[in-house]
Design brief:
Mean pLDDT: 94
Number of helices: 2
Largest sheet: 5 strands, antiparallel
Order of helices and strands: EEEEEEHEEHE
Structural class: alpha+beta
Shape: globular
Strand content: over 45%
Number of strands: 9
Low-confidence stretches: none
Strand order of the largest sheet: 1-2-3-4-5
C-alpha cells in the first residue's frame, strides 16, 4: 500500500544576506518518508537557499517545537532567483509576467520583492541576459542564492 502524501511545514533558520539578519522561513513540503525525515519542498522560498522540488532532511526540533531543516539530500536542479524592484515606475507584476513568459514561476512578497524558480530544464541564458539588462538599467537588483549546476555560466 502506497504511503499517503501529506503536506507539512518545515522551519528553516539561517542568516539572510538580503535582510542582513538571522531569520526563519517556513516552507511547505510533501512527506516522502517521515521515518527517514525526507521531504520534497513544494514552494519557492523567499529567503532560504533551497529550491522548490529539492528533497531535504528535516527532524523535529524540541527547542523549535517544529519540524526543522537539517540539510538538502537531493537537489531538484531548479534554481531560485531573488529580485528587488528598484525603479518604482515599473509594476512588479509586469516584470514577473515577462519571466513567466520564459517559463519561470514566481512568488511575490510585496510590491518591491519577488522570487522566481528557474526550472531544471530551462535554458538560463536568455533569463540571465534579461536579469543583467534590467539590473544594468537600475530597474532591478537580483541575487542567485541557489543556482543549480544546470544553470551555471
Amino acid at each position: 500500500m502506497k504511503e499517503q502524501e501529506t503536506s507539512v511545514k518545515i522551519l528553516f533558520r539561517f542568516f539572510s544576506t538580503i535582510l542582513n539578519e538571522w531569520t526563519v522561513e517556513n516552507l511547505w513540503a510533501t512527506t516522502i518518508n517521515a521515518e527517514e525525515g525526507l521531504y520534497k519542498l513544494d514552494n519557492i522560498p523567499f529567503y532560504a537557499s533551497v529550491s522548490c522540488g529539492d528533497i531535504v532532511l528535516a527532524e523535529f526540533d524540541e527547542t523549535e517545537n517544529k519540524l526543522t531543516y537539517r540539510e538538502t539530500i537531493i537537489h531538484s536542479g531548479n534554481s531560485t532567483i531573488q529580485v528587488i524592484l528598484n525603479d518604482k515606475s515599473f509594476v512588479i507584476n509586469d516584470v514577473r509576467e515577462f519571466f513567466t513568459s520564459l517559463g519561470c514561476e514566481s512568488e511575490k512578497f510585496n510590491d518591491d520583492y519577488f522570487v522566481m524558480e528557474i526550472p531544471a530544464t530551462a535554458d538560463y541564458t536568455p533569463i540571465r541576459e534579461k536579469l543583467i539588462e534590467l539590473e544594468e538599467n537600475n530597474i532591478i537588483t537580483y541575487a542567485e542564492p541557489n543556482l543549480s549546476k544546470n544553470h551555471w555560466y
